[in-house]
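Recall the central idea of this unit: under ordinary conditions, the amino acid sequence of a chain determines the structure it adopts. In this exercise we apply that idea directly, starting from the sequence alone.
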Amino acid sequence: MPVLPPVDGTPPAGFPRELTEGERAGDGWSWAYGHSPLCQNTVAVDGRAPGEGWGNNRGYGECITYKGGEEAGAPGADFQVLDVRDHYTWEQVEREVTDFRRTLIGVEGPEGRSYVLDVLSLTGGNDHALFNSAWGERVEAELPAGQSVGPTLAHVLSCDDAPQDRTYYKSLAQVRNLTGAPTVASPWAVTWATDYAAYAPRDPDDGSFTRPLPEDVGRVRLRLIGVPQAEGETQLLSGTGPWICYMQQPLPEGYLVKGNVAFLDARDFVVEHRRAENQPLASLFVHVLEGWREGDEPTLEAVTPLAAVSAKGPERDLVAVDLRFVDGHVDTLIYQSEPGALRPGAPDGIGPEDWRIIHAIEPGLRVNVAGELTLRVTEELP
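Accordingly, the structure predicted from this sequence is:
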């Protein structure tokens, strides 16, 4: 079968988004974009992205805590943790970062559906950008009102010492349709819908589409809920960018389009951008993620930050949130970057009127009727 690169063989109509060539793997713009923090849901510091991962230009990760791997239904399988700290990645790109750590806490909710608490701690530099994106359509949003802030992300996330022809900034220039809100003071959320088969090959003659999967397979939604940070201001930027894939699309007369292609505006972005006048900037990005099949309904009704302060122990990151479900059930999650004792920081802080299990890393605790934090998760629960 004769093979044509995408620029020479235009695929048939019928795809959800406009299509353009993605250039060669390894040195084309789409390859760099797909391996950038924009598409990997991670961060940039002072206008620099981490190394791509080849050429010995990254550091290494230290696994601090791992808890998981149990079979479904086994004791403890409903609570899983992955906590990792980075070493030397930012030194490779000449950025002074003293803390880069990410923690994922997975919990099975009351209806059997799991959710994840995502905590990313970053200290260093004075400009942080966290890229949240999904290959899909934004179908719901609870975001502060925004306004146009520039033609592309390259015009917004610019630093004086970062040349505009750098690979990272070429990737930023792919994200357009930008709006921004100046600060975030309360929880926000976006919901994306994705059809795994939406970009499957079309009929080479008329562009018609027969979905290659059963209707109840591959259609999902993901909700990202952002928890505001205790200190500083966070600008929320929304935009759209290309989704990159490797296409093999039949054409009339036996030809085949084969290669990297970009579907424009098929990836939806929410970028959290923080700046400080004085170094080092400390950011604590906190999110809750819940997914479900198309046709189902979300089970999380609200996420509420709680006020908790250290009663004993070293200086550390603290995150405490209530997760209220539509059936009235409430989960309380506490994350501490180091072991220590806590106390409520306000009357509406951690002080339930009955027993609750608190899922946490260090320590894992339960609250009694007096608001006292007792019992580690590692101990046997009554």
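Confidence is low (pLDDT under 50) at residues 347-382.
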